[in-house]
Amino acid sequence: xxxxxxxxxxxxxxxxxxxxxxxxxxxxASVAAARIESVGFLxxxxxxxxxxxxxRRVRGLGLTRPQWRVLVYVLQHEGLSQSMxxxxxxxxxxPLGQLVRALENLRLVxxxxxVTDQREWLIYAxxxxxxxxxxxxxxxxxxxxxYFQGLSRSEELMLRRLLERMRSNLSYELER
Length: 176
Known about the structure:
Largest sheet: 3 strands, antiparallel
Number of helices: 7
CATH class: Mainly Alpha
CATH architecture: Orthogonal Bundle
Number of strands: 3
Strand order of the largest sheet: 1-3-2
């Protein structure tokens, strides 16, 4: 499969303002919309395509997107309470409970009662999680190779730093 290394849409004029003013000095609705959220829409579109690519790579595992997302989060943060997991993932508790139950049925996660609060469930990786994880890592590696294609290592690091700063800025503003 031949890989495209350049994209004429994104590489034609990267520093050009995406939307100049119209002749009358007023912006059209589409131009104004482009100014409002061009970076946000781009990030959302890249995220959508990344999820779509990952979904295709892990389709054979029989996991839905929300399930693999919860599984990966649990593997990164084992021992969180179900409530804290829901807050961290920005998911309501009831839908998260259904996802955890489905993953528990597949033996990918397990729930244990908290010793300090018997009303609380703590979530851990299940017996089968370590069998699935290499396949998730392989899919993530393939995806990373695709989305960083044509970027230098320094550009990758710069992108990461910029996105982390944006996340930090937004977290600060939205959580105070």
